[in-house]
Amino acid sequence: MELTETHSLPISQQRTWEALNDTEILRACIPGCESIDPDGENAYLVALSAAVGPVKARFKGRMQLTDIDAPNAYNIVFEGQGGAAGFAKGNARVMLEADGDTATKLTYTASAQVGGKLAQIGSRLVDGAARKIAGEFFKRFGAQVAGQGETETAQAGDDTAPAQPAQPDAESSDATSAESGADATKRKRSWTAWISKS
Prior knowledge:
Blueprint (H helix, E strand, L loop, with lengths): L1 E8 L3 H8 L2 H7 L3 E6 L4 E10 L2 E15 L3 E9 L5 E12 L5 E12 L1 H4 L2 H35 L8 H11 L4 H17 L1
Antiparallel strand pairs: 1-7, 2-3, 3-4, 4-5, 5-6, 6-7
């Protein structure tokens, strides 16, 4: 299995590099990730749950960063065991390139091998699952780093601005709470109006 993709991120290259090396951010962004714990220099123990077609399993593995060229690139070498589901191992090359002062182009090329039940379900399903997991990771990662970038910009310009992003969650939870007829409709209209203003 091989994957090559490019993503554009709305923050500087240095900030992207820092985020890619922040285990808390990675844990929040990797679908099904339960833990990432340091295991020596530039190495981590990872536990995650994943579903590949009909096969669902909890994987435990190790991830090692090699050929580190901060803040431009590194290699990730990984291997994981999923019990009866089988195993996965492979590597990825991650490269960052500045796209102006406030954006970064991230390109990665990954290759992996799977064995056990995972190998039996067919490469098309495995490739599809890998692309879906990677896509979800970058969707979450982009949202995380973009949110932090906005907060940093707002704090630099105006101390009261960071309080504003909390509004959507509060109004969203209000709109989804159990209400009847007119009240729910009224709230829905106010939520729509809030979105159109922002």
